[in-house]
Automatic annotation (TrEMBL):
GO terms for molecular function: CDP-2,3-bis-(O-geranylgeranyl)-sn-glycerol synthase activity. Pathway: Membrane lipid metabolism; glycerophospholipid metabolism. This is CDP-archaeol synthase. InterPro entries: CarS (IPR032690), CarS_archaea (IPR002726). NCBIfam families: PRK04032.1 (NF003114). One of its GO terms (cellular component) is plasma membrane.
Length: 181
């Protein structure tokens, strides 16, 4: 596989894990998941993790996986790269794993005394990869090993922070996000 093919497959395969965060930003609000509860003198998760945002993120990731699967054949004929279709379980692992990773990151941020919106370099950019890939592997191991070769995983680990920083910068400039990270 050429580097370009690996890049295309990595981006394609990760889209159902990338889009939930952005959908959550657009749809967020309402009741926080932690219900306002604190642990010690700090919130468990904080007001930035809501039921609505989380549900919207998972639904958006699943919907995108469905749409991509419909077009995988067309994309292959058009550009000659064998982009994968998503099984329902793989899609669920990627989308729900992305949201879960983001929630666990907020839990860690609160425990380390960071207020809502504070940055945590490294964690902010890779939290969703760290949970979405293992969860997809647990839910559909055959699909996962077929798509996520070591080359693809390496590209994901390098590409994701770059995409994360740039999309959040755009969302911030557009006034959709309070901070550029
Ligand atoms: N959001 C949400 N539910 C989620 C994730 C995000 O409602 N599960 C929405 C919230 O409105 C949140 C915004 O998306 O403020 C930006 O997400 P993020 O940067 O992850 O949250 P922060 O507000 O920065 O909070 P934290 O410090 O906990 O990451
Ligand atoms: K985050
Ligand atoms: Mg944030």
């Amino acid at each position: 596989m050429t580097l370009l093919e690996t890049l295309v497959i990595a981006f394609w395969a990760m889209l159902p894990a990338y889009v939930p965060n952005n959908a959550a930003v657009l749809a967020g609000g309402g009741r926080p998941i932690d219900g306002g509860r604190t642990w010690g003198d700090k919130r468990v998760l904080g007001d930035g993790k809501t039921w609505r945002g989380t549900a919207a993120g998972i639904v958006a990731g699943l919907a995108l996986a469905g749409i991509l699967s419909l077009f995988a054949g067309d994309v292959e004929s058009a550009i000659g790269v064998d982009v994968p279709e998503f099984t329902p379980l793989a899609a669920l692992g990627l989308a729900a794993g992305a949201m879960l990773g983001d929630i666990l990151a907020s839990f860690l941020k609160r425990r380390t005394g960071r207020q809502r919106g504070a940055m945590f370099p490294g964690l902010d950019q890779l939290d969703f990869v760290v949970v979405s890939l293992p969860l997809a592997a647990v839910l559909d191991f055959a699909w996962f090993t077929d798509v996520f070769t070591w080359e693809v995983i390496l590209v994901v680990v390098i590409l994701t922070p770059i995409l994360h920083v740039s999309t959040n910068m755009i969302a911030y400039k557009l006034g959709l996000k309070n901070e550029p990270w």
